[in-house]
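Moderator note: this is an archived Q&A kept for reference. The question asked for a predicted structure of one protein chain; the sequence and the answer are reproduced below.
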Amino acid sequence: MSISDDLIEQYLNHLTHARKLSEHTLRSYRHALAELLTLAGTRDLPTLGAAEIRSGLKQMHQQGLSTRSLAHRLSVWRSFYRWLALQQPLSSNPVAAVRAPKHAKTLPKALSVDDAKTLMEAPQQAKAEPEALRDHAMLELFYSSGLRLSELVGLDVTYIEQAGYRSLGWLDLAQQEVHVTGKGKRQRIVPVGQKAIQALQAWLAVRPQWVKQDPAALFIAKRGKRMSPAVVYQRVKRLALQAGIPTHVHPHVLRHSFASHILQSSGDLRAVQEMLGHASLAATQIYTSLDFQHLTQVYDKTHPRAKKS
């Protein structure tokens, strides 16, 4: 193992144990750092300069990498060099003076209330088979509680604590809520709406037919294993296409829809922040823009002086 490889492993170990980053985040960090190694070539990472970093980013951009992806890589590299400066003397941080490329700010996509209703009802049109009941329960829970994809697949059917295992997320039907562990290992409790409760009860009634390898998991595949994020992502996408929703739908679109629809109805930004599990209110404030878009549409349609003659 080279000096550079060893430094990256030490840094990832620091992220795992000191900062307790999720496996998904660690994978993205590892990928970005692997690209830094490729950029460095035969040179050791502590010897790189700003010119090499800029040249590498330029080449990645020419190869079609988006400005958002470039900014993420630069952020990971900057964080790595800050950590490295605490481990050994560095003549300079080669990333410190390199600016991330500007990218257009885009609002998160959200379904209309009508499209959300259509999507929620779509699996009910199918036969009352385990797969359809499971898919319906997943859709309802995504939209009812604004869960992230990783949070939903990590749910257990109830709280479990036994030798070598303790639930990080679970369903509490009696209290009509879910307990989840989100980003930064932050735990929260989110209400579950009545429609989602009914869908979950219907799924739980047939779930024992599939229970084999992972009896703890709330959502399982036909083979009895906990559903993977990739499979859930594809199921949501397919169900939306079958329902005729005129936009690309994935689990995070349902999370955005949950947040924007709650905000439109209540105007309570703090409550939405709590339910989404955002550490900062600033992360939730983007939904005020979505809400304003909705208000603008209402104004354009209803105000006498807004209508075109």
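Archived answer notes: The two ends are 73 Å apart (CA to CA).
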